[in-house]
Amino acid sequence: MTTSLVTDATPAPSVFRAGLFDGHVALITGGGSGIGRGIADTLASLGAHVVLASRKLERVQAAATAIVEAGGHASAIAVDVRDPDMVNRMIADVHEMHGRIDLLVNNAAGNFYAPSETLSANAWKSVIEIDLYGTFFCSQAVLPVMRARGGGCIVNISMTLHYRGWPLMAHATAAKAGIDALTRTLALEWAPYGIRMNAVAPGPIPTEGVRKAFTPPPSAEGVPDLFAAEKAMESYGRNAIPLQRWGTPADIAGMVAFLASSAGAWITGAIMVVDGGEWLAKPPRG
Fold first, then answer.
1. In b/e form, how buried is each residue of 77-91, taking b as 16+ CB within 10 angstroms?
2. What is the per-residue pLDDT across 195-239, written as a single tens digit (0 to 9) for each?
């Protein structure tokens, strides 16, 4: 029996005590799948009530239902993070329902691979608005709620690709570089309010979009070669990631939980890289 470097990473036992976030409310944008869902599962398992936000209510509602069925506390809310009015209503609704927001995770993103020379203005604008504008709008909207309580924690989800440049991702790398700068700036501005602002920069996580990028063009019959995609991802994990495996949403969720806990009480303005050493290895272009 072989072990996949892409799908078979065994989750480590949790180092966090049970009930760590009992009574806390965590709002997670883009929390219905992928990294956002992994963060939601981890925080809910530690006692937090997780509020999952997305443009597609049915997606986050299904995720929230699954978390509740597993014994956690969760709810869902619709929002388009590009719209500041919708974001303000979301924060008001969550605050009215729960009376607090202890943690905001800005995870919503709209990334895809595209050549820069043919990238449309709307495609560029869409990613910048979801990733960067959305992070700012949600952070700005939650500020009064956290400030009134004497503090809180905001964690932005960034990436590592802009550390060295990454072909076909000009829109996403520009947006995430902006998120890093925003994280450091707001950390300084809002520290007097007791608000800690940090970011987590994930390395390769086998999300749907990443798998699509590794999938060769369809055959003449129009069938994608999923086996070739898996082999390509296996090769990348073995040769380009020093720890020789792809990451999992749980890997990222552990860092978010650490930053939100008392262990991260003196950390603000940090960009925490969680990538198996991949960006340091600087994989060859292409």
1. bbbbbbbbebbbebb
2. 999 999 999 998 777 777 777 776 666 666 667 888 888 999 999
What torsion, rounded to 10 degrees, do the Cα atoms 114, 116, 122, 126 define? 60
CA distances, 223 to each of 81, 116, 213, 215 (Å): 35, 27, 15, 11
For 132-152, what is the mean pLDDT?
98
Signed CA dihedral, 267, 159, 234, 29: sign only? positive
Q: Check pLDDT > 70 for residue 114.
A: yes
Which tens digit of pLDDT belongs to each residue from 44-65? 999 999 999 999 999 999 999 9
The CATH number corresponding to 25-205+249-274 among 3.10.290.10, 3.40.190.10, 3.30.70.100, 3.40.50.720 equals 3.40.50.720
In angstroms, rounded to a whole number, what is the distance separating the alpha carbons of residues 282 and 275? Answer: 12
Q: Assess contact for 112 and 33: CB atoms under 8 A.
A: no
Q: Where exactly are the structural domains of the chain?
A: 25-205+249-274, 210-246
CA–CA separation, 157 and 202 (whole Å) = 8
Rounded to whole angstroms, the Cα distance separating 5 from 24 reads 35
The answer to whether the beta carbons of residues 174 and 246 sit under 8 Å apart is no
Q: What is the pTM of this model?
A: 0.92
